User: Fold this.
Amino acid sequence: MMFDIIIRGDQVVTPHGTGAWDLCIKGETIAAVMHPDQFSNLQSNRVVDARGKLVIPGGIDPHIHSLWHIPAIEKGGEIKLTDGPDIVSRAAVHGGTTSLLDFATWTHGQTIEEAVNIRKQDWAQKCYTDYGYHIMLQGAIPHNLYPQIAEVIQEGYPSIKIFTTDITPSRKGRKITHGHIWEIFKVLKKEGGIAAIHAEDDEIVMHMYDVLDREGRTGFENLAEVHNSMSEDLSFRRIIRLAELTEGTPLYMMHVSAETGVAAIETSRKRGFPVYGETLHQYLMFTHEHYKLPNGQIYHTYPSLKETSDQDALWKGQLNGSISTIATDEICCNLSTKTQGKRVDDTTGGNAGCEPRVSVMYTEMIVKRGYSPSKFVDLISTNAAKLMGLYPKKGALAVGSDADIAVLDPAEKRVVTASRLHETDYTPWEGYEAAAWPVLTVLRGKIMMENGEFFGDVKDGKLLKRKVAEDIRSRPII
Ligand SMILES: [Zn+2]
Assistant:
């Protein structure tokens, strides 16, 4: 037997536990997972000694936005686009992430197929990682769209993004009414889909914009009053109840930010419904107090940063299953764009963060909180693969899985600084002391990054077609 690469590790995180294994790669997949030294160095073109390091499946970021519109601040001002998949995925590879899920946005006047085809042009041969799209719907849904939702699920795009709010007064047209959401849920339930929800109570949010405007308190440091915990409570419970009543439509609650959101998910899961939570690593690390720091907008993502008690709930939620994934909501733009909005209604959301995500979470989860390596891997890779229909091709170090691998080196401690990252000119984690950093990233058997040196080709990334397993869709199994 001859392999292309053997990675010999003593802390290799597999679905069957963490231990000393040799990962034997042939072509694009893992051909064998063996006890140490069963194959000699002569049986592989390349042997990597990863002992003393943590060997994990490549990270999966289930929520990013590239080439995304950033609304102009001034009326008639320039509408900017965020950085493209080439920049974002290059940073991802440096940070040990090998798959990204972005969005294809359907707008009125086009078919969903057209929306997907337009999005493909943004990505094809412009990405260093594998990638897929959630289908983002918005506004009033015309009746002829429902059969198209069924079709696009069959095509390999099972996750449908839905907003229950316009987010800010200037973004009218995103919100979908609960009547239309009900119709979408029926299709998702029947056809193998999962709803990816941005839930906020639109009436509460818009009311709070009015209140702060009247009181002359429109600075962005007040964002937590607008996009508040009560809004998360009301909106989560309403949308979850709608899903429960629609034969238990599976839900993926995006960027959970509050204790109330975690509690709503937990309640439904206890009743046996397939409801899953995503949070963002900035919600785990920062509170609304960070808005008061210089350039405080850099910590912001919609809905908003909240209180320490909300943070605590987001951490606890990982232990009882209410929070399954840690994403970034990546919006890669420079500091001047990120800080151009200074009001509650015009501050740019999203963060540059897909490069440090895995290392920051390693530090927070394994080093500071004593999570097992497999729990950490679940949260930054495996659960996203399962919920988004990529498992076990992605998110597992197992025979037959894609050879997507990251090796984290605890000897490579690093103070995070924007100049050493590959995203943009700022990072919210400036000065953060990471306890390990990736020294090797492999995408489908190809070494993309080793010891900081980059070997990727922008044509390496492939579009992922996805199918969510029925057990994931029928009850809260992870
Ligand atoms: Zn987002």
In short: The longest strand covers residues 3-14.
